[in-house]
Prior knowledge:
- The chain is mainly alpha-helical.
- It has six helices and no strands.
Amino acid sequence: MDNPTTLLVAIMYVTIVATGLVNVLMALSDIVGGKAKSDHLHTGWLALLLLAYLNFFWETTAILDIDGWNFLAFISFIIGPIMLLFASNLVTSPKEVDETPLGAYYFEQGKRFFLLLCLVQAWIIGLDVVFDSINYATYMTGAICAAFLVLMLSQNHRLHVTGLWVLLLAFFIRIIFRAAAG
């Protein structure tokens, strides 16, 4: 990494990822400490976000191999972590005190949350295409993207619980595929 621009991109990327990671960790800390109420589904999505952020942190090293940054490439590279940060903010921000039941609030926020997670997956696929690194993990990412779209359109609680478990498994499998690929 001889290019100082690469270092600046990496710093911005890590800053955005670290901000989201801290938000998720603090939300989980409040749940574990009894300061915040949460149901299992909400806590599960926080765990999935935690896994996504840890994976993003691990992928930071890919930035160091890129030379010749321009502003468009910079924006293209950090847009994924920004969307993930926006998604995590939807589930880490406390519910306003009103008459809306927690379940209804979940589905109200869920549309935007799952759309943003779907867009993050599309971003990951786009990076795989740009860097010509399409492999099994890319196809798994496509399946994850489709699952987030289904969850965005559904208000079936049972489907969301099943989707959470399937997506947690898919995230683990994708991490294994990426680790095996190099």
